[in-house]
Amino acid sequence: MTTAPAGDFDYDTHGYGYATQRRTDPRIEALVHAALGEGRSLINVGAGAGSYEPEDRYVVAVEPSAVMRGQRPARRVPALNATAEQLPFDDNTFDAALASITVHQWPDPEQGLRELRRVSRGPVVVLTFDGDALDLLWLAEYAPELVTAERLRYPKIDWIAQHIGTTARVEPVPIPIDCADGFTEAYYARPERFLDPAVRKSQSAWGFVDPTAESRAIEHLRTDLANGTWDTHYGHLRTQPEFLGSLRLLIGLP
User: Fold this and answer.
1) What Rg, from alpha-carbon coordinates, does the chain have?
2) Fewest CB within 10 angstroms: 57, 159, 160, 212, which?
3) How far is CA 45 from the centre of its chain?
């Protein structure tokens, strides 16, 4: 019997290889862990293979995809098969809650965020992207269909903030030039990486782009890299230490 995916992207079909391409970047990790505060217990919802999951406290991981649960390294706790919208825990069970690059994939983000707030007696931390800032990356010129699709997926930043606490703050997250986590903006200075199908396969955004449009975008980029057009327009990024794009860290307090 086939089980429908828990979110808008079928990780049980397309999630193989995520743990290789989507690794924790230590600089982003430091910001996430600081936002979580000093609490000793944490629920990580939409935990995937465990990126940005602290190892110095008690963690309960929640992940509905069997393929993603299977990619969690041995040092991580096994993940519970559950969804954000129905967390099987009492109110205020955890010192903090984390949702890392996952809220946009939930069928009911409002209910999922309400559940995060319910089970956390401390901060609710959400790492996500601002859909209104996606076109800051040059990739928008080559794959406008990707930006259009992604904007439809991402809840508004202010809306998320309103649902994770009585007070909340939003912090732009600088993306380092050698970012280890292979989301699209991580390669702002390394455009050749997009020519690798394995890289694109680990970015769910491409799953919402028609294959013909994806092929056209990649061939356009390949041509511009070969003839120097990309470097003429964007070559300064190859030595720019950080990129302030659409990545945001939200911290909500009860």
Assistant:
1) 18
2) 212
3) 12
